[in-house]
Amino acid sequence: MKHRRIPKRRAVIAGASVIALVSAGIALQTANASTNTPTATPATLTLAKAGKLASSLTSDLGAKAAGTYYDAQTKSLVVNVLDEASARTAESAGAKAKVVQNSLAELKSAQRTIKGHSTPGTSWVMDPASNKVVVTADRTVTGTKLEKVTQLVKSLGGKAELKQTKGQFKPFIAGGDAISDPSIGRCSLGFNVVKDGEPYFITAGHCTEEITTWSDSSGNVIGENADSDFPGNDFGLVKYTGDVEHPSAVDLYNGSTQSITEAGDATVGEKVTRSGSTTQVHDGTVTGLDATVDYGNGDVVEGLIQTDVCAEPGDSGGSLFDGSTALGMTSGGSGDCTSGGETFFQPVPEALSTFGAEIG
Question: Is 199 helix (H, G, I), strand (E, B) or coil?
């Protein structure tokens, strides 16, 4: 596991939120792809049923399947396919089929090419709605850097497109001007977990890289780092050392909590909720999976969930969930909760598997 050694800070945690340091930015995308006219009315599906159908069709269609996403408005599963025969197969199973140009293999190849020429201040993600890899450049990517990214995207033809965001990509940890004491940073608690029968919590890895001890809003030490992985991944594990409650729930900042009973994988198109110590609770939609962000200074994080949910410094590590299912922890992004923005999340299942922990 990768560990980046940098000066440690003390952190504070309040309720279901913790305190640490950093801020972040990211982008999302929309576009068009070739479509065919459905010959059957797609079935109305819950997200869970859509997920099972997506898995089944992806297996049945093999290389002819080119990605799926959930249309929350019509409650239908959209399946990208490469020919009309595959479209009929998808439609007969209850999905909405879209005939597209680029195969998954071609899009993954495009992602590898982009990764090999990564530029600080950019992100990229495979977007099933557009059937392209969408590269986003933040406000720091200008001049020759922007020209380099533009030419790279052009070289990939119809397999990629370039977008720009007004914000700057960086992890969402609060510090400096946001914290009166420079020795203190602020992040948010992700989810309470159990490891070897003992209570821990998971949060962002860039938070545990900055902090050794964790305190509540009254200054009482409640935990110490147990493990950390950043960059590459962005998750950290903290062992409870204080006599505090640690329910398997997320603070909704209205006097109530959301019980968390399991961890799961996010789906493109899924409606999700985020909780964090700075901006509290906000909703949005998953816009991409397996996203990569180059925060600069060698801090490249892969395998992230991309959303249009807003976040701000101090929200790092906070919970992304759908009902009682834990999905992710806030990594970074751009914008804020006044003008809007996009945020990336570290998937929870990967963190649990790495740490040998479980929700509880």
Answer: strand
User: What class has domain 104-164?
Assistant: alpha beta
Query: Catalytic residues, which ones?
Result: 206, 234, 316
> How many whole angstroms separate alpha carbon 221 and alpha carbon 201?
14
| Cβ contacts of 127 within 8 Å, gap of 6 or more | 29, 30, 31, 133, 134, 287, 288
| Cα(234)–Cα(21) distance, integer angstroms | 14
Domain 9-27+170-359 fold = Thrombin, subunit H (2.40.10)
Tally of CB atoms within 10 A around 339: 9
pTM reported for the whole predicted model: 0.88
Distance CA 291, CA 15 (A): 30
Query: For residue 229, what are the CA distances in angstroms to 33, 147, 206, 226, 238?
Result: 37, 33, 8, 11, 12
**pLDDT tens-digit map of 22-43:** 222 223 233 334 444 445 689 9
